[in-house]
Amino acid sequence: MDENGEKPSSGDVRGHRYRDIANDLFAAIKDGRYALGDRLPTEQAISTQYDVSRHTARHAVQELERLGLVTRNKGGGTVVVKTDPNPRFINSISSIEDLMQYAATARFETLRTRNALALPQIETLSGRERPDEWGHAEGLRYVDGSDRPVCWTDVFLHPDVSDIMDTIGHTPRPIYSLIEERHQIAIHSISQTIEAISIAGDIAAGLYVRPGSAGLKITRAYHDIDKRVLEIAVNIYPAANFSYRMTILRGQPREP
Fold it and tell me: Which domains does the chain have, with CATH numbers?
């Protein structure tokens, strides 16, 4: 007997019928029939559809949960939280050098370049900039081995360095290093803001998520030694695709 007093069919379990059902549901998630945030059918509905016991239906859903594709909430049903069983993109950046590794593991494919219509709100911008003089590249980032984008990226380049626009997406090197090489300008500091957003419009379509899905927006501004902003990168991740890791060291106590 299972936890609900039901006796599972030995044929269902021994023949791994639950795996066939889990594979069916996984295929439905991959092709968009169940998008991020959607609820899967109830165990009773799955049991009826596949003519199996509730125990087998539950076992199939648990398999998807084990892969991290769904989460089961008491009273809230089973919700799709991820569309790919591959590990989520874990971002652990504590220095400028770490961005080299980030660029090497998340390639940028440019969809469109143009003059900027507006600039992101960055505290160190003077407010006197003319957006139409800045270069703007839109694209998607992919991790190796996956054909699904991990995030949407907008890159904005200061007029003095926007001539590198034609090299973006053609090299695994980070954009800031292209600026440094061509213009002999050192990136001195990077400021970063992380905020929760709802993903909408073309960005949702590009990321294969439902409009209004939860996401994280990470905005980085790259400054030279005079605090001039040379590059702004805005990365938008579906919440299920991203984890941010950081280590905080305890400082030495101050002398009394």
Answer: 10-80 (1.10.10.10), 89-244 (3.40.1410.10)
**Long-range pairs of 96-100 with CB within 8 A, sequence gap ≥ 24:** 96/176, 96/187, 96/190, 99/174, 99/176, 99/190, 100/173, 100/174, 100/177
Q: What residue type is 68 in one-letter code? A: G
Q: Where are the beta strands (DSSP E) in the chain?
A: 70-73, 77-80, 89-91, 106-115, 135-143, 151-157, 189-199, 213-223, 229-238, 242-244
Spatial contact of 142 and 109, defined as CB atoms under 8 Å apart: yes
Select from 215, 169, 192 the least CA-distant residue to 120.
192
Overall pTM > 0.90 = no
Cα separation of 55 and 147, whole Å?
34
Beta bridge partners of 78: 72
Q: Any idea which residue has 């954009």 for tokens?
A: 175
End-to-end CA distance of the chain: 67
Tens digit of each residue's pLDDT (9 = 90 or more) over 180-235: 889 998 888 888 898 999 998 889 989 888 888 889 999 999 999 988 999 999 99
